[in-house]
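Appendix B. Extra example for self-study. Work through it before the problem class; the solution is given directly after the inputs so you can check yourself.
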Amino acid sequence: EAGVVQSPRYKIIEKKQPVAFWCNPISGHNTLYWYRQNLGQGPELLIRYENEEAVDDSQLPKDRFSAERLKGVDSTLKIQPAELGDSAVYLCASSQHGSGTFSYEQYFGPGTRLTVT
Amino acid sequence: GNSVTQMEGPVTLSEEAFLTINCTYTATGYPSLFWYVQYPGEGLQLLLKATKADDKGSNKGFEATYRKETTSFHLEKGSVQVSDSAVYFCALTLQGGSGGSNYKLTFGKGTLLTVNP
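Solution. Structure tokens for the complete assembly:
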């Protein structure tokens, strides 16, 4: 079974430029998460999707961050414009929620390491 | 709110040494507890989990016991190997929480383990 796929793995941009990250979750997983992991810290949730609906975006800085999950499968996270403080690893995770499943197990992708100069 | 506190690293051990990484938590409800591991250049992988008090999670020689009375979930391994070198994260979600809190993983800051041959 293929895991969570993310691209690109690394991205270096200048401040004020836009950037986008892509995530393909595990097949059949209806819930998708974007996390941000700052250096030396644990990941923090940015947004959670149930199918194509964003059900928790309370931690997403909406002035410059946006996300979409068209058709309830792949997802894109965008930053425009990027700031120096956005340098971090952006992790995507997915899980399957429903009756008879363990609702708390999330599977993570390798992440995209963003450096803003 | 919910929080997870891990012992500060880095932790450096010799091969076959005994490992303990302390983890304590605070939670507004009844949490499920997890240990995730992040190998260099890879995403987070679930190492083990426990969903109720006195449960013991185990995997790959690692163990952790859910201690409700001390709000702890310490990670142990009797004999570490060089291949165990990684960053270890303790995390929790709430069970049956409202507003999707049962899906949100709250992580500690991580503990870097280096095992020397």
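Self-check: Chain A touches chain B at residues 3-4, 31, 33, 40-45, 48, 55-56, 91, 93, 95, 97, 103-111 (CB under 8 Å). If your reasoning did not lead you there, revisit section 3.
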